[in-house]
């Protein structure tokens, strides 16, 4: 079995010109927690997840080490949570997304797909063919297709 046998062909994605507000809307409308970012040629240029949003709106701390190696922790961002949540909505998606995307080839074996999903501890894996996004595979997809016939 290969990636193309189990991938979902209808991929919920966002363009690289979109704003974070567009991503959040898609998260809410489709009940998802991450999606690929593509350019005009449908090439994968990033991936944004709920974790990327959480890192931006969460409390940040700066660590300062003085000459005696004493570590002081100072709150680095005193912005109110609501302010940060409002501010993130108008950012371009690529400002907070991961630009190094773990992806798999259209003809990759299911064993390789499972290994990548497990080792990298990611929920979804974009599938590309000739450099273009053609599908997406989730952990659930692998489990369902791998064990369906056995049970």
UniProtKB/TrEMBL annotation:
Domain CBS: 7-63, 97-151
Alphabetical keyword list: CBS domain
SUPFAM superfamilies: CBS-domain pair
Pfam family name, one: CBS
Protein's name according to its UniProt entry: CBS domain-containing protein
């Amino acid at each position: 079995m290969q990636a193309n046998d189990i991938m979902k062909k209808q991929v919920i994605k966002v363009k690289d010109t979109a704003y974070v507000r567009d991503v959040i809307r898609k998260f809410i409308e489709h009940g998802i927690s991450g999606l690929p970012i593509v350019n005009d040629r449908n090439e994968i240029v990033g991936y944004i997840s709920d974790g990327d949003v959480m890192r931006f709106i969460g409390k940040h701390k700066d660590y300062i080490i003085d000459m005696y190696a004493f570590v002081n922790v100072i709150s680095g961002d005193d912005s109110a949570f609501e302010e940060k949540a409002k501010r993130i909505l108008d950012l371009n998606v690529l400002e907070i997304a991961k630009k190094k995307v773990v992806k798999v080839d259209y003809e990759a074996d299911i064993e390789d797909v499972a290994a990548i999903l497990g080792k990298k501890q990611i929920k979804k894996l974009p599938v590309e063919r000739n450099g273009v996004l053609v599908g997406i595979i989730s952990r659930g997809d692998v489990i369902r297709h791998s064990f369906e016939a056995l049970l």
